[in-house]
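Lab meeting notes turned into a lecture example. A postdoc, R.K., suggested we walk through two folding results consecutively so the class can see how the record format repeats. The first protein's sequence and structure tokens come next.
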Amino acid sequence: MKILKFESLILLLLLIFTSCSKDDSLAVEPADYSINLNLAHETDWEMADAILVLINEHRVSVGLSTIERDQQQASAHAVKHTNYMIEMNQINHDNFSERSEALRQNGAIRVGENVAFGYTNASDVVFAWLQSPSHKLVIEGNFTHSGFGVIAKENGAYFFTQLFYSK
């Protein structure tokens, strides 16, 4: 019986020491949220600016401050997501947490997002967003900046990603 207890004790000690060893290769590396800022140039800025004008007109009409256009980080991430939606051929908020964290690492304290597909002009997409309670909440949120991923498909219908954030 003493031999069995001794063997059990040795086995237990081996498990403890091997499971507590440190292996640097298992260390979790911080996520890299860097992005090519040139992606922002893929946005249809004429359409994006028209959307921003309409959203700011709405915000002012309900007593809110206007938001500024971000043609760098937020727009690059918005374009990347819009391209992803085009590839998937569906609108979604997949990987929003990654876009949000990327903007937070660049000073954002709050992030929101609206997406859409199929509209061919700014007034129609903004009207649709304002008719949707969840999209309207984002438009009327406590945000200071917005980035755009607005890209037309071959048939002229657009995919839209609008990222909102506050600094």
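The second example is placed directly after the first for contrast:
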Amino acid sequence: MLTVENLQFSYGNGPDILKGVSFSLEDGQTMAILGNNGAGKSTMLKCFNRILSAKHGRVCMDGQNLLQMPGREIAKRMAFVAQHVPGTQMTVHDVVMLGRRPYMRWGFTEEDHRIVHEAMEQLGLTPLRGRFLSQLSGGERQKAILARALAQQPKILLLDEPTSSLDLQNQYQVLEIVRDICHNTAITAIVVIHDLNLALRFCDRFLLLKDGLVYRYGDASILDRTAILDVYGVNAEPVTVNGQRIILVD
């Protein structure tokens, strides 16, 4: 279980971006972090693994405070997938192998290679293993970075707007892969996402941020007309179509 307690953050001496965020998340769940631009969504995600240093609070996994661990130990528990994936002159295989760095001492082992090959197979990347990242489509790059994260063997995946630059097909593929991985392996995923309907389709839990605080947290029922108006400033109605809950803007 992941437990976040009173997480606070500000840039330098500026105003607080996060003013005391608290929640808990069970293993195997996928949680969407929702809210307007500037609400602190990506900032909160980066505080979890110390890309940014929180000024107060605790981020605990199974009772251990991650914010007090060395970076290498955090990387064995959390893997971060950034919003933008640059093209590089590295092969898919080598990019995924970077996920084994927290465990390496003197070089790659047979176990490292086995884990990397399994991650590539899981994402359907085996046929592309010798291709450079710069030669791949946006969706293929995102899958390669996700495979790198899985090669870290984390307990928690942190995904910062993983679908923002993808077409509709790849948006669905990437989020479906993440959801299935979580449900099948008990990995927990925390996803910063703007599209409420994608969140409703692929996530189990929902955290609405407003003014640096948790406005609401829970299952899909928290995304009602009142919450959407208060957080996003638009009138919208949650409806169910073919068994799927969606948000329709008035």
